[in-house]
């Protein structure tokens, strides 16, 4: 019984670490040379900005849903006409979900380390290609 209690406490502590890390990332929205600001639109036309990591592969621009909170990803799939501020310039794009061999290639070129994966709670990773409009 004592072992189950210890395991339960460790699990709760781990969940709190993941929630704390995700909250910190979500509120701080770190930006820099490797990020872009992605603007997605909801069903009512409202816009939502999110700082996401910029990934380049095979001459194309990608972004990844790397965390459990991923409302921007769902909005981009529902309304793929998005805007992104890339290198200080806002441009129009069409968001295309990446699957299959293309997903595997982008994933292999942009792997996350084990520490990041632990801190984010091992979320599934999805990619979106941003095609210029």
Task: Describe the structure concisely.
This protein is α+β, with helices and mostly antiparallel strands and 133 residues long.
Could you characterize what this model shows?
- With 133 residues, the chain is of the alpha+beta class.
- It has a single domain (2-132), classed as Roll (Pnp Oxidase, Chain A), CATH 2.30.110.
- Helices cover 38% and strands 35% of the residues.
- The chain is built from four helices and seven strands; from the N terminus they run H-E-E-E-E-H-E-E-H-H-E.
- The chain has helices at 2-28, 71-78, 100-109, 114-119, and strands at 35-41, 47-53, 55-57, 60-65, 81-86, 89-98, 126-132.
- It has a seven-stranded antiparallel sheet.
- A hairpin with a 2-residue loop joins strand 3 (55-57) and strand 4.
- The mean pLDDT is 89.
Tags for this entry?
7 strands; single chain; elongated; Pnp Oxidase, Chain A; alpha+beta; seven-stranded antiparallel β-sheet
Write the SSE topology.
Elements: H1 2-28, E1 35-41, E2 47-53, E3 55-57, E4 60-65, H2 71-78, E5 81-86, E6 89-98, H3 100-109, H4 114-119, E7 126-132
Antiparallel strand pairs: 1-2, 1-5, 3-4, 4-7, 5-6, 6-7
């Amino acid at each position: 019984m004592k072992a189950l209690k210890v395991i339960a406490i460790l699990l709760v502590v781990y969940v709190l670490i993941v929630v704390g890390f995700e909250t910190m990332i979500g509120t701080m929205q770190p930006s820099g040379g490797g990020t872009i600001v992605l603007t997605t639109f909801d069903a009512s036309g409202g816009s939502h900005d999110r700082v996401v990591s910029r990934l380049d592969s095979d001459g194309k621009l990608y972004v990844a849903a790397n965390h459990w909170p991923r409302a921007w990803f769902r909005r981009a799939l529902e309304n793929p006409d998005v805007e992104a501020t890339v290198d200080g310039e806002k441009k129009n794009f069409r968001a295309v979900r990446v699957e299959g061999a293309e997903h595997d290639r982008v994933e292999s070129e942009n792997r996350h380390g084990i520490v990041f994966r632990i801190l984010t709670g091992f979320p599934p990773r999805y990619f979106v290609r941003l095609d210029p409009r």
